[in-house]
Amino acid sequence: MRPNLAGIAKLGHSPAMQSNNRIFEDAARLAEGAMGTAVAFKREIEALVRAQLERILAGMDLVKRDEFEAAREMAVNARAEQERLEERVAALEAALADDGKAPKASPGEG
Question: How do the domains of the chain map onto residue ranges?
């Protein structure tokens, strides 16, 4: 017994069109699955690269940002203290020179 295709033809859906639609639907599902796989692959590659970079950086014995900032602040403070002491020494030397009590340089100094 053969199905009556007259009703399908009237609606504009021939068996060939249904076959084409199914092919497109299958292709769309395949593309969607491929995109999902590509996204998962991208995440996996990112995780591997991140782990590798962390391993490399850990082996380089790099300083952390907060430790660097603390050392930088100590250096700035030490420089300011040095400049303050240089000014104090210069003032004391000038005061000694004014009093005529400036020490004479020994032969080894200079």
Answer: 19-60, 63-99
* Gap between the Cα atoms of 35 and 22, Å rounded: 20
- Residue 30 structure tokens: 């395949």
Residue found under tokens 């850990």: 58
DSSP type of residue 63: P
**What number of H helices and E strands is found in the chain?**
3, 0
Question: Residue 99 is encoded by which pair of tokens?
Answer: 């009093």
Question: pLDDT by residue for the chain (110 residues), tens digit each?
Answer: 555 555 544 555 555 566 778 888 888 888 888 888 999 999 999 999 999 999 998 888 888 899 999 999 999 999 999 999 999 999 999 999 888 765 555 555 54
Question: Could you tell me if 6 and 12 are in contact, meaning their C-beta atoms sit under 8 angstroms apart?
Answer: no
Which element (helix H / strand E) includes 54? helix 15-59
What is the maximum span of the chain, computed from C-alpha positions, in angstroms?
133
